[in-house]
Design goal:
Helix content is about 60%, strand content about 15%. By secondary structure, the protein is of the alpha+beta class. The protein has two domains: about 40 residues; about 40 residues, no CATH class. Strands 1-2 form a two-stranded antiparallel sheet.
């Protein structure tokens, strides 16, 4: 009778260990996905506002926060 409790305890311990490992692996995968989605930040040449590079307007090797700032900078350079 005592061996049944020991086997039941070992089975429960094994089940809990497997579940914990599964949860840990899922958490690690989620954290890796989050770290991969990091993007470079750039600042607008005209106003200095920081924004993600993929949202910035690029013109002549410089970055701007909007098309209007890119046009203003271009007109200032022409003068």
């Amino acid at each position: 009778m005592g061996i049944r409790y020991i086997l039941l305890g070992v089975a429960l311990w094994l089940l809990i260990t497997i579940i914990r490992r599964f949860i840990w692996q899922r958490r690690q995968e989620r954290m890796e996905k989050q770290s991969r989605s990091v993007t470079n930040m750039v600042s607008c040449k005209l106003c200095g506002m920081h924004l993600p590079q993929n949202e910035a307007v690029s013109q002549g090797g410089s970055y701007y926060c909007c098309k209007e700032h890119a046009r203003q900078s271009k007109s200032e350079e022409e003068e």
